[in-house]
Design a protein that fits this description.
Elements: H1 7-19, H2 26-33, E1 37-47, E2 50-60, E3 68-74, H3 80-96, E4 102-108, H4 117-133, E5 142-146, H5 152-165, H6 192-204, H7 208-212, E6 224-228, H8 232-243, E7 248-254, E8 257-260, H9 267-277, E9 287-288, E10 302-305, E11 324-326, H10 335-343, E12 347-349, H11 351-354, H12 357-371, H13 380-398, H14 404-411, H15 416-441, H16 448-467
Parallel strand pairs: 3-4, 3-5, 6-7, 6-10, 10-11, 11-12
Antiparallel strand pairs: 1-2, 2-4, 7-8, 8-9
Length: about 475
């Protein structure tokens, strides 16, 4: 960890900073702050001819809403502190975007690249069995999802293991989200976190007076962006910003190095190049920078750290030249670095808001699994026929025919992915408006993260008080 504070301590520091702006009782704040349940386990798995002992965690931060919700990451950096911090962030994130879950997180201290698919499956299934044994998984108890180092494949293994031990449970499919669409997943989940980053930035950049404070004009079109990390989140955040927002991607940082092109980098072509060569370095038209973190220090309008936590520290913060930092990863800016960046008048869009697209669409998937029906199935054809009748009436009244292609665009009913994207956009817009209202109404709150925490804490506090636990 960089700096003097651990990841969890940084989250707690941000909590304390915001708590004084709430009207919540001290005892209630203490209850919200602590992790309710921490499960640490070591279990053996036979890898080849040897037994490997796996260190694993599942943390349920808050039970004010049930089930709890949070991803599972596979990384050698996993430890108790990190999983507790991520679980706490999930609680605040869910509250912020009005997703009715408590926060949770899981982690296995492994490098998934060091294991075969067969061995990863054994590890995942054994971890799931441990969660089942201790009551840390279930559609109404605790619902995992993908995170760093995991994806739909691992979620499918978790689902299969859970259903094996819970035969006949009608809602078993809702025990985990981020599954393949063919196994109860939802269209649009893969892109969800990255698309949420785009929707958040799009909304933030609509406020002209706010943008003036940071030397920016309203609107995303033409803005320059640097992205760190081309994993799932970084790829979709940059691709959608580029194609739908007309943003110019001028720098990209990855594990193997970083590159720069002031004229713009085509993200799709770059990803294809990396698949072919194994590296982003030497991509056509780009300059290779000295280090893999050098791109973070490029002059740009928007910097998107989309990898792991603690990449912007008190050491490199003085050299950051971005006007807006969008925390697509969890905890990419340390507390010490944040103080430096705020003093430089840099807008930090906090992780607990801007990367909430993943849990929002996970919520949609959970609802889909509980309803046992894909979204759009009931109304798509009805809407199409209604719109088609309207167009026929317009044509009849005007005596003009509409082009077939245009007519199909106008009259089509919404598919599942259209409804998911619509729900995600509405969620990100509404959440930002709530954060901004808190921020603008209290002149003592100087940064968006504190405003987001205050907004989340007030909602959680209201939930606890409605339960009658803290009258």
């Amino acid at each position: 960890m960089s700096g003097n504070l651990s990841f969890f301590e940084s989250v707690q520091r941000n909590f304390d900073k915001a708590a004084k702006y709430t009207n919540l009782h001290k005892g209630l704040l203490e209850q919200i702050k602590v992790c309710n349940a921490v499960y640490e386990v070591h279990f053996p798995v036979k890898i080849g001819e040897e037994f490997k002992v796996i260190e694993a965690y599942r943390v349920q931060h808050s039970h004010h809403r049930m089930p709890t919700k949070g991803g599972i990451r596979y990384s050698l950096n996993v430890d108790r502190d990190e999983v507790m911090a991520l679980a706490a962030l999930m609680t605040y994130k869910c509250a912020l975007v009005d997703v009715p879950f408590g926060g949770a997180k899981g982690g296995l201290k492994i490098d998934p690249k060091s294991y075969s698919e067969h061995d990863l499956q054994k590890i995942t299934r054994r971890y799931t069995k441990e969660l089942i044994n201790k009551g840390f998984i279930g559609p109404g108890i605790d619902v995992p999802a993908p995170d760093y180092g995991t994806g739909p494949r691992e979620m499918a293994w978790i689902l299969d293991t859970y259903t094996t031990f819970n035969h006949g449970e009608i809602d078993a499919m809702a025990c985990v989200t981020g599954k393949p669409v063919s196994q109860g997943g939802i269209a649009g989940r893969t892109e969800a976190t990255g698309r949420g980053v785009f929707y958040a930035l799009k909304e933030i950049f609509t406020y002209e007076d706010d943008m003036k404070k940071y030397g920016l004009t309203p609107g995303l079109e033409g803005k320059t962006m640097v992205v760190q990390g081309l994993g799932n989140v970084g790829y979709y955040a940059s691709l959608i910003s580029q194609t739908e927002g007309k943003v110019k991607i001028i720098g990209v940082a990855e594990f193997e190095g970083s590159i720069y092109n002031p004229n713009g980098i085509d993200i799709e072509k770059l990803v294809a190049f990396r698949k072919e060569t194994g590296s982003i370095l030497n991509f056509d038209g780009c300059t290779n920078l000295e280090t893999r973190t050098a791109a973070l220090e490029l002059e740009c309008d928007i910097l998107v750290p989309a990898a792991l936590e603690n990449v912007i520290t008190k050491e490199n913060a003085p050299r950051i030249k971005a006007k807006v930092i969008a925390e697509a990863a969890n905890g990419p800016v340390t507390s010490e670095a944040e103080d430096i960046l705020l003093a430089k008048n840099i807008l930090i869009v906090p992780d607990m808001y801007i990367n909430a697209g993943g849990v929002t669409v996970s919520y949609f998937e959970w609802l889909k699994n509980l309803s046992h029906m894909r979204f759009g199935r009931m109304e798509k054809r009805f809407n199409h026929n209604t719109y088609d009748n309207i167009m026929s009436t317009v044509e009849h009244m005007t005596g003009k025919k509409i082009d077939v292609k245009e007519r199909n665009i106008i009259t089509r009913g919404a598919d599942e992915v259209d409804l998911v994207r619509s729900g995600l956009e509405e969620t990100m817009i509404t959440a930002y408006q709530q954060i901004r209202n808190v921020w603008m109404s209290n002149p003592d709150i100087k940064d968006m993260r504190t405003a987001a925490f205050v907004c989340a804490l007030q909602k959680i506090g209201s939930d606890y008080e409605n339960l009658g636990i803290f009258p």
